[in-house]
Design brief:
By secondary structure, this protein is an alpha+beta fold. It has helices at residues 33-43, 103-110, 126-141, 181-196, 224-233, 254-257, 327-349, and strands at residues 6-11, 17-23, 60-62, 66-67, 70-71, 76-81, 146-154, 157-158, 203-210, 238-243, 261-264, 267-270, 278-279, 282-283, 288-294, 304-307, 313-316.
């Protein structure tokens, strides 16, 4: 992904390792490698008691592109070894398709599939994006851009307070990654209830990018919200993305929805920011605010009806190590993907005008 700041990833869920190569990162960026590891720790299996029982340290090893903690301007290669893979746990799925998964579609595309936990279709691959996104985040910090995501909905339990009233810095202090204590309690209780029933939940993650200068984004094919949307839809289980007022704008009149321009110090800003910080696909200098909707996890801890390769009806037993709700561990993934897109557009903007 990316035009200037690019990421290529490799690896499967229960293979030997996953990893990636970042190209286009400028030379001279002093990296805090411990901060990269911290980001991975927020996503790793076992990072929250509400998630999977798989245990991975997710220690990243950098192979190239960095000298004494400073980027060289050359490709940054890195690897994360899988330590707790159990491919044998999936032998019963060699000839059976799991409902809601990519098993059948991957086999239709390639004629072969990796049945070991979904292979490359597994969310295990997103650890690579978090590592690369942590580098992008540090690049963005040099431009005064900062991002924070948080869980704003789990199932029917929804956080309704505006983000401006929340202590977003406390997000990761919560097991469910919600910065509102009361809403977090309700969400946690619901996840535990549904886990006990052998079922799963979907949810919503909200994200805000602050300090984004006006002018980022290309006016036609690579609109900033289009690239952000594509990045979010590239995350496993994502079913919807909205910016600003999103679908709520449908019920408004234009006279109600249009952002009014106001003078803020020496700059022009908006009074309401219903557009989510974007107009015409280009950032307007306001906070960029968007929501990402995730479907319920497809693997259930209960029996499900399915079919095998021969078209025979089968019953899948619910077993394995899986998240009952993916959104708590997906918060750093949303942040990482947004960082990758914004870093790319920051570098692209530097060639847009003299």
């Amino acid at each position: 992904m990316g035009k200037i700041f690019q990421l290529v990833s490799f690896g499967e869920s229960h293979g030997r390792a996953i990893g990636g190569v970042v190209e286009g990162c400028p030379a001279g960026l002093k990296l805090d490698l411990q901060a990269v590891q911290l980001e991975l720790g927020r996503r790793r299996p076992g990072s929250t008691p509400l998630g999977t029982a798989r245990r991975e340290a997710d220690r990243v090893e950098f192979l190239s592109g960095i000298l004494d903690g400073v980027t060289l301007g050359t490709p940054i290669g890195f690897i994360i070894h899988n330590k707790d893979g159990k491919p044998g746990d999936y032998d019963h799925l060699k000839d059976t398709y799991r409902p809601g998964h990519a098993d059948l579609t991957w086999e239709q595309k390639f004629g072969i599939r990796d049945h070991r936990g979904g292979g490359r279709a597994s969310a295990r691959e997103t650890a690579v994006r978090v590592a690369a996104g942590a580098i992008a985040r540090q690049l963005l910090a040099t431009a005064g851009i900062h991002l924070q995501a948080w869980v704003s909905q789990v199932g029917e339990e929804r956080l309704v307070r505006p983000y401006t009233e929340l202590a977003l810095e406390t997000t990761y202090a919560s097991d469910v990654r919600c910065p509102d204590p009361e809403a977090a309690k309700r969400m946690t209780a619901l996840i535990e209830q549904v886990r006990g029933e052998g079922d799963t939940l979907g949810g919503r993650i909200s994200c805000v990018a602050r300090g984004v200068p006006a002018g980022l984004g290309e006016p036609v094919f690579d609109k900033l919200h289009a690239d952000l949307g594509k990045a979010m839809f590239g995350i496993n289980a994502v079913k919807g993305v909205q910016f600003g007022s999103g679908f709520d704008a449908i019920a408004l009149r234009g006279s109600q929805h249009n952002d009014a321009y106001v003078i803020k110090g020496d700059t022009i800003g908006t009074a309401t920011n219903r557009s989510g910080g974007l107009q015409g696909g280009i950032s307007n200098g306001e906070d960029i605010l968007f929501d990402v909707g995730f479907k319920p996890v497809s693997t259930l801890m209960r029996e499900q009806a399915s079919v095998d390769r021969e078209g025979n009806d089968v019953v899948l037993e619910g077993k394995g190590r899986h998240d009952p709700c993916v959104v708590p561990r997906a918060v750093p993934i949303v942040e990482a993907m947004a960082c990758l897109v914004l870093a790319d557009h920051v570098l692209r903007q530097r060639s847009a005008r003299l």
